[in-house]
Design goal:
Layout: H1 12-27, H2 33-45, H3 49-77
Length: 78
């Protein structure tokens, strides 16, 4: 089964990017480009290996759910 490459629930980088954007959004008080750039760097620096591990596990779990659902639907089509 081919999965969409940019699907937010099936790609760990999309989940991580969401975390980074959330940090920038919640800490942005000046709305100046240079300040947003600094916040972006801070957010990226805050990413820990545990975050990656969590997102990868989440994607694997979600992918299994999606695949199981699709296989179930294919069996019902017979």
């Amino acid at each position: 089964m081919r999965l969409p490459p940019y699907h937010c629930e099936l790609n760990p980088i999309e989940l991580l990017w969401s975390m980074v954007k959330s940090y920038v959004k919640s800490n942005n008080t000046t709305y100046k480009t240079i300040d947003v750039k600094h916040l972006l760097h801070q957010a990226i620096d805050r990413v820990k290996p545990e975050d990656w591990q969590y997102f990868i596990k989440r994607v694997k779990r979600r992918g299994t759910d999606v695949l199981g659902c699709c296989l179930h639907l294919r069996r019902d089509d017979r």
